[in-house]
Structures are given as structure tokens and as C-alpha cells.
Amino acid sequence: FHLKYARIQSVKIAGTETLPEDSIQSLIKNNLAGAYFFLIPRDSVFFYPKQKIEQDVIDAYPQVQTFSISLSNLTTLSGTLSERLQVGVWCKEGGADCYFVDEGGFLYERAPQISGNVYFTYSGDLSTGTSTAALRGSFLDPTSFAKLNAFLKALKDQNLFTPISFTKTAGDEGDVITSEGVVLRINVTTDSSVTLANLASALGGTSLQDLKVRSRLEYIDLRFENKMYYKLKGGSTVV
Known about the structure:
Layout: E1 10-14, H1 21-32, E2 35-36, E3 40-41, H2 50-60, E4 64-73, E5 76-83, E6 86-91, E7 98-102, E8 107-110, E9 121-123, E10 128-130, E11 133-138, H3 142-157, E12 163-170, E13 173-178, E14 183-187, H4 192-203, H5 211-214, E15 217-221, E16 229-232, E17 237-238
Parallel strand pairs: 1-5, 6-9, 9-12, 14-15
Antiparallel strand pairs: 2-3, 4-5, 6-7, 7-8, 10-11, 12-13, 13-14, 15-16, 16-17
Helix pairs in contact: 1-2, 3-4
């Protein structure tokens, strides 16, 4: 067990983009130091703590989505990781404290102080975590978050509106704020294709085909599958 050719002597990491490779290597090497029961070295190629190392890296770096290690040869341990893909930021009320959000709605890193619409912004209660312990929390469940983002993407791809933020209001409901000044009220559990079809139906209505009328839109309520409401600035709600 103590023969040099059967002990890990170097650690390599692949896949880092924003994370410091040297600090991840140090964490791994710390796991390889010492011996089991003062007898078997932890850096033995036969007994190195594979699962603990993988879990420790994920625990230490919320930015890491996946991480795995294996021996590339008898003396080299190679790790491969993937970093989370940022789709926006979640911010506390007032926007003073923000965190980057990945494709699953997971809050993985504190975001810098920002102004304007640099990032798409999510706000409202978290599904897991709290406003005082937001890191590693989740905004919506993964299925609802995917439906929401599919709807947001379709809005841009079809040049209907330009969404800049989403605020969860109550339960499964929330408001999509657009750069055009129109609020789209939706239910995040509804399939995005259904919500999009309702929106297309609303915009294709006789009155809203007039661009002058459409420019006066205050909100469109798309929360109900069989009914749609909209309101013009200075006007009453129309069903």
C-alpha cells in the first residue's frame, strides 16, 4: 500500500470556467492526506475516498453542477466538472441582495450589485431556502421553472414582448414585466404552449390588432385556460 507507484501523486481538473482550479485541487489533496487507521494511506489508488471527494467538492462550490473523479493512470487522479449555467438572478424585495439562478431555479452564487436590465430578474418567495438564507435555495420547483422559462423564451423568439423580470405574487401565480410596459399575469404550472396560445388569441383580437390600442395595454391576465382578461391604461378590464 505504501509503494510509490500505487499512490496518487498528482491531481488534474477539467471543466473549470470561473472556478479556481488550484483551490479545488487543494481540497482534493486534503482528502488524500493521512491514513486510514494510521496504516493505509488515503492516497492509495486502491482506497482513495472517491465518493467523499466528489461530495466535498459539490458541497464546497455551489457553482458546480456535476463532478466526478477517476484514475487516469496509477499516479494521477483526474476530476471533471460542469459549472451551472446562469439564466438570471433572483433578488430580494428592493433588489439589494441578488443571487445567480441556474436552469433549474437553483440559487448558486451571490450576484454583484447591478442596475438596469443586465440580467433577467426573478423575485418572490423561494420554494426552498429563505430570504435570509437564499444561497442553495430554489425559486419554484424545477418543472414550473422550466415552463416559465419556455414561455419567456417564446415571447422573445416570436417578437411578442421583451420580458425583463418575473415576480411571484401568490401560490403558482406571478407577473411577467416587459420592457414595453405591459404586465402578463400567468400561472407557472400551466404549460407554456397553452399560455402562449391564449396570449396569441388575445393579441389577435379585433381591438388589440390596432397598434395604437395595443400601446395602451396595462396588463393581460393569462392565468385561466378558458378566459383571458386585459386592461388598457385609463380603461376598464375587458374579458
